[in-house]
Amino acid sequence: MAELDKPQREVEVPGDWTYASAPESRDIVEIADRYGHFVGGEWLEPTETYETIAPRDEEPLAAVGQATAADVGRAVAAARTAYADGWSSLPGSERAKYLFRIARILQERSREFAVLESLNGGKPIKESRDVDLPLAAAHFFYYAGWADKLEYAFPNRRPRPVGVAGQIIPWNFPLLMLAWKVAPALACGNTVVLKPAETTPLTALLFCDVLRQAELPDGVVNIITGDGRTGAALVESEDVDKIAFTGSTEVGKEIQRRLAGTGKKLTLELGGKAANIVFDDAALDQAVEGIVNGIYFNQGHVCCAGSRLFVQESIYEPLVAKLERRLTTLRVGDPLDKNTDVGAINSAAQLERIRELVASGEEEGAEIYQPPCVLPEKGYWFAPTVFTNVAQSYRIAQEEIFGPVLSVLTFRTPEEAVEKANNTPYGLSAGVWTEKGSRILWMAHRLRAGVVWANTFNRFDPSSPFGGYKESGFGREGGLHGLEPYLTFEDSETFGG
Ligand code: NAP
Ligand code: MG
């Protein structure tokens, strides 16, 4: 074809390859102006309220009740009545039906829940949609399966429900933590009073609607909102038989002190400062993805986050270079945008804590790296951060930051990696990256952590128990182990979890 015959098309070459925004519609979820407490299947009018907001732009979302000790008492009484009036003696196969229903309704309404979770908590919609909601439903499915098999799960031990469980959860996985608590409690025949975290009550309140749809008998699950004072009142309530707490080590210790000598059962899921350990034979690009998922997932608001990265010295430079390059591709911004990788920090208070610890890292002499990123003006934001040149004694290597901040340290031998990884008051999780299966097993055996991931990180499954050593708490959630704290056995005394 002659040159002249060619069509002269002007092809526009895009100069800018940034993602167009892909916002999820917030209209899919209806938020009331005001919420009360869900007690005995009814909405109890609160005497006092506070405002819950969207951390992405500080938009007020709803007025929420601050439960008083009297409200807590009503909720516990409702749970006691429901326990005695039939729930505890219902055949397991009947209880299972309710749990299956709840699981299915959560699946049906998952988009609505995901939007509300991201709006109220700040996490990216792709996480609430692809992680929080599917896992919450999976927990109900999983424990529905156990409800009629408790005798089989604990042969010759005559498992019985404990009674009324008081459950207190944090703000980082609001609906998922609710599912971790409520599903095993109900499967075992207990009734529940649950307090969500002050900053993220909305999905727990929407969950009350699921309970109604599932026609769960009144009072089997009661949800009361409020701050730490409400939590403390629940812990002190005389008619609660068991407390399940997920939150900070500081509050966990306080609860343990309060319950000492009362005979109440207790499980504590507390903080962490996990080691993510990369050996020189690991697949580096894969490890970089695991490191990013380990610490920037959910803005680092993850108790088992891989917040201490241990790199074998021989690969330190290429690994850090790859990691810093990867950070430049993380998209920080609107939690409701489907392209967002890192969302908003949950609250002003948490942002302040992150800033304070990051400032201490700089003062103590660590080197900070943050990729160039434009943070929104309103709301609570913090850029993904990597610290190198970190000594083990620095606060950023010791204390839980609970934000998108990674501290990088090095090691030479597997023995040194184990020693440094275990040099923490916590023991919730750890990660090992290596090609050798034998080394994975050698390491897993020596790491004092409740969960050890190999060549992956932050993987959860309802059938797998989760929990800590040392100051990360005691008792397990998930799996067969997760049933035990909600049961008493006629054959033996049980302690703690
Ligand atoms: P937090 O302050 O301990 O709060 C946890 C829950 O306890 C909230 O509902 C809180 O209410 C309530 N609370 C506060 N003071 C209380 C008291 N004196 N008595 C009874 N309840 C009280 O922790 P957070 O800051 O929300 O959450 C972050 C912490 O949770 C991190 O340390 C993290 O590692 C840990 N965490 C652990 C796991 C795990 O499975 N191990 C999972 C997630 C988070 P307010 O909302 O009003 O504070
Ligand atoms: Mg708190």
Outline the structure in words.
There is one protein chain. This protein is an alpha/beta fold and 497 residues long. The protein folds into two domains: 26-270 and 475-489, Aldehyde Dehydrogenase, Chain A, domain 1, CATH 3.40.605; 275-461, 3-Layer(aba) Sandwich (Aldehyde Dehydrogenase, Chain A, domain 2). It has 15 helices and 20 strands. The strands form five sheets. It has a seven-stranded mixed beta sheet with strand order 14-15-16-13-12-17-18, sandwiched between helices. Strands 9-8-7-10-11-19 form a six-stranded mixed beta sheet, sandwiched between helices. Helix 2 (92-108) packs antiparallel against helix 4 (125-146). The longest helix has 22 residues, at 125-146. It is globular. The chain binds NADP nicotinamide-adenine-dinucleotide phosphate and magnesium ion (MG). NADP nicotinamide-adenine-dinucleotide phosphate binds at residues 168-172, 195, 197-198, 227-228, 231-232, 235, 246-248, 251, 254-255, 269-272, 303, 400, 402, 428, 468, 473.
